[in-house]
Amino acid sequence: MKNFKRTTVTTALPYANGPIHIGHLAGVYVPADIYVRYLRLKDEDVLFIGGSDEHGVPITLTARKEGVTPQDIVDRYHNIIKESFETFGISFDIYSRTTSSTHRVLASEIFKTIHDKGGFIEKTSEQYYDEKAQQFLADRYITGKCPHCGNERAYGDQCESCGTSLSPDDLINPQSTISGSVPVKRETKHWYLPLDQHEAWLRQWILEEHKEWKPNVYGQCKSWLDMGLQPRAVSRDLDWGIPVPVKGAEGKVLYVWFDAPIGYISNTKELLPNDWEKWWKDEDTRLLHFIGKDNIVFHCIVFPAMLKAEGSYILPDNVPANEFLNLEGDKISTSRNWAVWLHEYLQEFPDKQDVLRYVLTANAPETKDNDFTWKDFQARNNNELVAIYGNFINRALVLTHKYFEGKVPEMGALTDYDKQTLDEFKNVKAEVENLLDHFKFREAQKEAMNLARIGNKYLADTEPWKLAKTDMNRVGTILNLSLQIAANLAIAFEPFLPFSSKKLRDLLNLESFDWNKLGRIDLLKIGLQLKKPELLFEKIEDDVIEMQIQKLLDTKKSNQLTTWKPEAIKENISFDEFMKMDIRVGTVLDCQKVPKADKLLQFRIDDGLKGRTILSGIAEYYPNPADLIGKQVLFIANFPPRKLRGIDSEGMILSAENPDGSLTVVQSGVPLSNGSKVV
User: Fold this and answer.
1) What angle do CA 515, 519, 525 make, to 5 degrees?
2) Which residue, among 328, 302, 318, 259, has the nearest Cα to 23 in the 3D structure?
3) Can you tell me the distance from the alpha carbon of 119 to that of 121, in angstroms, rounded to the nearest whole number?
4) How many domains are contained in the chain?
5) How far is CA 473 from CA 379, 465, 467, 481, in A?
6) 3-state DSSP call for residue 607?
7) Domain range holding 133?
8) Which of 168, 190, 212 is the last residue of a domain?
9) Angstrom distance (rounded) from CA 647 to CA 45
10) What one-character DSSP code corresponds to residue 14?
């Protein structure tokens, strides 16, 4: 591997059309931050670049829906995202945006350079045009009937109902979302990046020269290259974006996928106006893109082709993309609000940034999609951060204050067990480094936590609180070694858990720390005064987790209510068939659960005659069945008796199914005589 002088690290630009959620964090921002913090600890020259992606059709749709300007939308969400990242500890050197003047100028310059070198091709094609609004329609401005599932509100790029990718020409009865009119086809000219002309060198560069890339990245690139690359449009007919800077392109802007990755470069230039080029044009600079799997093609094929066409920029050395994180077994969806939003987490779990960082890293979707659950979040906090890491630190500090006035005691002769313990973590630095160098953040954090397990076990096995009665020298040795392990933990966890590592360094009065000293046992000098113990982590109780789970359940219920549509009407029946059913009104005299039958309720009904018993499988929807006593309900009276759980059921209670799948007993809206027929 080549030795580089410096490293430029970028993270996918979050779209300024909504806040950040845990899927973004797990896939992109937490691993990138871990890696950058690691390089900084080693005193390597690194620049961490982030920013908001602020152009594109979804932003214009949101603005139109809210009756505000696109700039209003991006200003709102850029500030929310930026503040969330800062509070969460994502340590960008700069977090800027693609609506900046620096970006606008640089994106135009790069387009112009490629254009002037003949790097684009011009093509005229027919696209949908709204004559009433007098503008061409982007795919998302067109809706119609999905040819696959029949959804009447499918978009021109995808059907939200069945998930099928579409083109506007696929839609049945297309309609403009702007004016509601039927669009017509008109010719329009656009500029295309001829990816097919770059295919040969891309195959060599990726498939032959970068076989070390993660299998999911390498495999997706190979699949695209094997299918054959096609020219890709770099302009759009829109009024929100960076104008295409060539003659004859009036009313057209740079396509968002072309302009957005240039944001990495323009944000660097904004930060270092006189020194930015070495981070993007010097062959001694290593370029890394941290992204999710949905951006692999753009960062491994499209953006490199753009940079190659421009001619003066370096290409990425690695693109360590992750897979997706799911939530409680379901795909995270911003449109369905099925997400854990970062800004809400920071409000509801104050000072617990490291807990979320820890859990997301432990569940990092590095090689396959993974799942976040609130129960796992609680378990990892309580059973690992509190019970192992925090418990060890607290015991070591409390015992030192109890027996040595809070000062690091002298270390005496080491026993075989002491030496065995030292031997267990002597290679921690090399192991963590090797894993981080290969972007295996989940395993690297596990190694750091293993150091806490070693310390916890050492204290539990040596039991210094018992030895204090007979051998204080031995107690001093045990606590010195324990405190040295604690100091090592402050260093080892620094890339992963920066807030708790800082707190631990403060408790240990460890003013300076050096990554290169990780694994040593002379980090704390004898006689150093330690601060009074404070808990690094606190237990998260069940009620806190239940509240978060209920929040998601409420979201799911709300989604079901807003998206619910009644089932299609069943086949017609004759009037005579209907008249065969004897539907009547009756008053519930008694209602209770059937013993040993979780789903059955036993109704005693006053039917105006002799009375009857009816069993109904709706117990799960009525936890307090006595609430139904006195209600007038509808029932089918002429069902033949049926024995259930040894009880004769004489009819059927009528219930209606709600959008969320629950059942509600159909009741009479006005008082009626028992036995009245429904006709």
Assistant:
1) 85
2) 328
3) 7
4) 4
5) 38, 12, 9, 13
6) coil
7) 121-190
8) 190
9) 79
10) -
Which residues lie across from 10 on neighbouring strands?
Answer: 49, 289
Same domain, 183 and 83: no
Could you say which DSSP state residue 534 is in? -
Q: Which of 611, 607, 618 has its CA nearest to residue 585?
A: 607
Is the pLDDT at 156 greater than 90, yes or no? no
Residues 462-485 have pLDDT tens digits of 999 999 999 999 999 999 999 999
Same domain, 443 and 556: yes
Q: Which two tokens stand for residue 515?
A: 């990554």
* pLDDT tier for residue 178 given thresholds of 50, 70 and 90: confident
Q: How far apart are CA 95 and CA 85, in angstroms?
A: 9
Q: Which residues of 389-408 are buried (b: 16+ CB within 10 A; e: fewer)?
A: bbbbbbbbbebbeebbebeb
Please provide the size of the chain in residues.
679
**Paired strand residues for 6:** 45, 285
Partners of residue 186 on adjacent β-strands = 127
The burial class, CB within 10 Å (0-12 / 13-18 / 19+), for 538 is middle
302 pLDDT above the threshold of 70 = yes
Which residue pairs, CB below 8 angstroms and at least 24 apart, start in 164-171?
167/139, 168/127, 168/128, 168/137, 168/139, 168/142, 168/144, 171/142, 171/143, 171/144, 171/145, 171/146, 171/147
Strands (E), 131-280: 135-136, 142-145, 154-155, 172-176, 184-193, 232-233, 235-236, 253-254
| Mean pLDDT over the full length of the chain | 93
Q: The domain that contains 184 carries what CATH number? A: 2.170.220.10
CA distance 318 to 12: 14
Are residue 474 and residue 445 in the same domain, yes or no?
Answer: yes
Question: Please, are residues 358 and 404 in contact by the beta-carbon 8 Å criterion?
Answer: no
Helices (H) and strands (E) in the chain, counts: 23, 25
Q: What is the torsional sign of CA 395, 397, 401, 403?
A: positive
Tell me if 263 sits within 8 A of 98, measured CB to CB: yes
Torsion angles phi and psi, residue 301, rounded to 5: -120, -55
Is 403 inside any structural domain?
A: yes
436 and 408 in a single domain? The answer is: yes
Residue 103 belongs to some domain of the structure = yes
Residues whose CB is less than 8 angstroms from the CB of residue 420 and which lie 6 or more positions away in sequence, other chains included: none
Burial-class residue 300 by CB neighbours within 10 Å (0-12, 13-18, 19+): buried
b/e sequence 599-638, b meaning 16+ C-beta within 10 Å: ebbbbbbbbeeeebebbbbbbebbeebeebeeebbbbebe
Instruction: Specify the pTM.
Output: 0.82
The answer to whether residue 339 sits within a structural domain is: no
Of the listed ranges 86-95, 137-146, 360-369, 409-418, the least confidently predicted one is 137-146
Alpha-carbon span 261 to 316, nearest angstrom? 12
